[in-house]
Amino acid sequence: MANHPSAIKRMHQNERSRVRNMSYKSGVRTAVKKFLQAAGEKSPDAPQLLRKAISLFDKGVSKGVIHRNTASRKVAGLSKKLHVG
User: Fold this and answer.
1) Considering only Cβ atoms within 10 Å of each terminal Cβ, which end of the chain, N or C, has fewer?
2) CA angle (26, 32, 38) in 5-degree steps
3) Are 39 and 46 contacting, i.e. CB atoms less than 8 angstroms apart?
4) Structural domains of the chain, with CATH
5) Confidence grade of residue 15 (pLDDT, cut at 50, 70, 90)
6) Is the dihedral of CA 50, 52, 55, 56 positive or negative?
7) With contact defined as beta carbons under 8 Å apart, do 45 and 53 qualify?
8) Most distant CA atoms of the chain, gap in Å
9) pTM for the full predicted model
10) Helix 5-40 × helix 68-84 angle, to 10°
11) What pLDDT was estimated at residue 85?
């Protein structure tokens, strides 16, 4: 357990950001699952769901939750699933 005031503050900040990041990543995973299901069924709303997932990836990168290369790699893979089938 932290004793120094700055260490205590940092511990609280880390917990808040951990919860926020966990929630955000969960939303991204949900969007990806919805897209993959729609793409597998050749649904007409698959492109719309892909745009939603890409938007969430981009927001995650700008907030520092997801590394930009990771987001780029995952977006490329999802796009390939839509266009190649």
Assistant:
1) N
2) 140
3) yes
4) 5-84 (1.20.58.110)
5) very high
6) negative
7) no
8) 57
9) 0.85
10) 10
11) 62
What does each C-alpha distance from 6 to 3, 9, 17 come to in angstroms? 9, 5, 16
> What's the sign of the alpha-carbon dihedral 4, 5, 6, 10?
positive
Q: Alpha-carbon dihedral of residues 46, 48, 49, 55, nearest 10 degrees?
A: 140
Q: Is the pLDDT of residue 1 over 90?
A: no
pLDDT attached to residue 83? 87
> Which amino acid would we find at residue 18?
R
Residue 39 sits at the vertex; the CA angle it makes with 74 and 60, to the nearest 5 degrees, is 30
Query: For residue 52, what are its two tokens?
Result: 């939603």
Alpha carbon separation from 76 to 8, 15, 17, 72 (Å, rounded): 41, 32, 27, 6
- Provide the 8-state DSSP code for 41: T
Please give the structure tokens belonging to residue 73: 């790699």
Residue with tokens 């069924």: 41
